[in-house]
Amino acid sequence: MVVDYLTHYYRRGTDPFRTLSALADRAALQLMAALYVEGSVIWERFKDPAQYLQERRQTEQWLRQAFLAKGGNPQETHPIYMVLGRSQWVLRMADAATLATTEEIRVPLSVLREDEVSFTYPDSMISHWLGMDRPPDYYQPDFHGQVFTLSEIRSLVAMKGLPDEGWETNLPDFMAHYIEAQVWNRQPLLAYKQYIQSIKNGGLE
């Protein structure tokens, strides 16, 4: 299997490729309170903003250091989060609240360099927790608590497929069944967004 694009899910009515991690804590907490949607598979994670922010900051420190150790060249302190391919888990778990509040944009992997993007399975916050706590029912040392390069994740997908598309996993549904991508350079994403907008406008800026 070859997957040549990433999908970014973002709040309808806002601009894509932004990260609340770049905000000061108070502003981030206020934004999460505004983004929270009860019952949404994507937006309900902001139910406890303070706990979420603490765990997210810890996870991003781990991600960045692990990516640097593998030769990554992050241009940002905080990544833009995306999904490899299109998540069957999101499609399967999508509820009315999520469908009403979520947009997506696809970006070809070809616009990114290998040293600008890292990957985890599953979602990085869950992977980080699994790698630390190692719950016996779920922990898989080859995948959890690991940060993968583009070459590594391509080899893994070629062998196993995507989660829920050939790759059978043992994780319960409340753990996100997808390969998360962390893009460490926002500029190629913004340039691609502008390119897509110019096409929609008939090639005119």
Key features?
two-stranded parallel ribbon; five-stranded antiparallel β-sheet; globular; 7 helices; alpha+beta
Note the topology:
Blueprint lengths: L4 E7 L13 H11 L13 H21 L10 E5 L3 H6 L2 H6 E7 L8 E4 L3 H10 L16 H11 L1 E2 L2 E2 L12 E4 L2 H15 L5
Parallel strand pairs: 5-6
Antiparallel strand pairs: 1-2, 1-3, 2-7, 4-7
Question: Would you kindly provide a written description of the structure presented here, covering whatever features stand out?
Answer:
Helix content is 39%, strand content 15%. It has 205 residues and is α+β, with helices and mostly antiparallel strands. It has one domain. The longest helix is centred in the first third of the chain and has 21 residues.
